[in-house]
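User: structure tokens for Golgi SNAP receptor complex member 1, please.
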Amino acid sequence: MAGIGSSNYWEDLRKQARQLENELDLKLVSFSKLCTSYSSSRDGRRGDTSDTTPLLNNSTQDRMFDTMSVEIEQLLAKLTAVNDKMAEYTNTPGTASLNAALMHTLQRHRDILQDYTHEFHKTKGNFLAIREREDLLGSVRKDIETYKSGSGVNNRRTELFLKEHEHLRNSDRLMDDTISIAMATKENMTSQRGMLKSIQSRVNTLANRFPAINNLIQRINLRKRRDSLILGTVIGICTILLLLYAFH
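Assistant: Done. Predicted tokens:
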């Protein structure tokens, strides 16, 4: 009688395991369909506002996802408990002769539980990744639409700002070039002034020795002053024109 009772207990555990496995199989199929349709239904809602819009909106799908996740986790916990009871049964006295067959059956149920657990976590992870990506894309699209709604004035202001920035850059570059030219001109004129002073000193020495040359030297000095005035005037005009162009 004890053997019959033990056999009935084992069969009852197997029956519970098969029932839970069947429920999990159906739940996982529905769960997978829900996750697969999530992205396409959101795309449909974004691209169609007519009567063909999917009946299930994303908030409803999110609630269904949470509910089904809890139900599947509960079924997995129940199946795990049944498998543990089956494992305990295989270690009870009097089952040694059937131990090989019992262990084979137990291992098969454990493999099924492992497969269902892996499938559930994989599907759940995919769903969460899709939802996170879709939420991010929705936020980006919202920001783009918000930007487009005020893009007329903003684009005009941005364009004017860029033009002004480019104009300032060109002015800075032109000022740098002007300063470089002025510095080079200054160095050149300083060098020429030194040379002219040396020549002037020698000419004055000759003039003191030869009075006839004095008149010629005076004429040369007058012409040199005139040339200096002309050169200074030209340089001043060019500098003024460059500054006017730079700040125009």
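User: Anything notable?

Assistant: The chain is about 90% helix and 0% strand.
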